[in-house]
What does this fold into?
Amino acid sequence: MKEPQQNINDVKTRIMNLKGKGVEMQINHGRKKIKTYSGVVEDVYSSVFVVKLDCSSVNQKATYSYSDILCGDVKIALKR
It folds into this structure.
């Protein structure tokens, strides 16, 4: 079994530091379907965080859990 390189508290802290900043995300939708989005981390809660996506003219939001980042389904980085 592979040891996790980060824990849930590290992920929460990293996302809290990104609140209000532009981010780029890679989302694994399964079956080799990986999509890239950009947006702004809007809200941070105890078990999930909300990202306002830039991809459409409609105000679209997506919610992800911190465990999505831990298991590798979501990768998030500060926008360049």
